[in-house]
Amino acid sequence: MVDGDGDFACGAEGERYFQAALDGIAGGKTELGHQIAVVADLIPERDRPGQSTAVQVVIDGVLVGYLADSHANALIQALDVRALQSARVEAMIVGGWFGEAMRGRQGDYFVLLDLPLWVLEWSREKKPSRAKTAEARPPSSSAATAEAGPSGLPDRA
Question: Residue 114 and residue 102: Cα distance in Å, rounded?
Fold first, then answer.
């Protein structure tokens, strides 16, 4: 598990294509919608043509979206430094409402991710090229645990 900053400030992208999967995980739409705490695996798609920074957001073994490219690049570099294949973070599934009072309208599901602060900050800075990944180390998060390495990721994800 990678400790986030508790803000759930990063949303997954492309959830509109995964509404059926999110509906299944959430247990169906309700009148008030959902706010469900879950765990998300962030898995780079290293062989995806034309997009070496694609990172899947997977909940309960089901693909539900992708990490934004800017955050994905920072995460992939940190994973490479630690020789890890993926990371696990806390997440929330929100939305999924329907309402008779709203003339049958429905709200989509969204996935919010609790990424470490260094991913959010480092993704805004100029990042080193992929060729220099082994030398690149993002700043450590103050929320990182004692078990975390220099990248802010734990030894095991």
Answer: 31
Identify whether the C-beta of residue 154 lies closer than 8 Å to the C-beta of residue 148: yes
Alpha carbon distance 86, 43 (integer Å): 5
Long-range contacts (CB closer than 8 Å, 24 or more residues apart) made by 147-150: 148/3, 149/82, 150/81
Q: Both tokens of residue 156?
A: 């095991």
The token pair at 6 is: 């508790």
List of residues 6+ apart from 57 with CB closer than 8 A:
12, 40, 41, 42, 63, 64, 65, 66, 67, 91, 111, 113
Residue 138 has pLDDT above 60, yes or no: no
Q: What mean pLDDT do residues 92-106 have? A: 83
- Summarised one tens digit per residue, pLDDT across range 18-37 is 999 999 999 999 988 999 99
In degrees, to the nearest 5, what angle opens at C-alpha 109 toward C-alphas 114 and 75?
30
pTM for this model (two decimals): 0.73
Determine the residue type at 48: R
**pLDDT value of residue 82:** 85
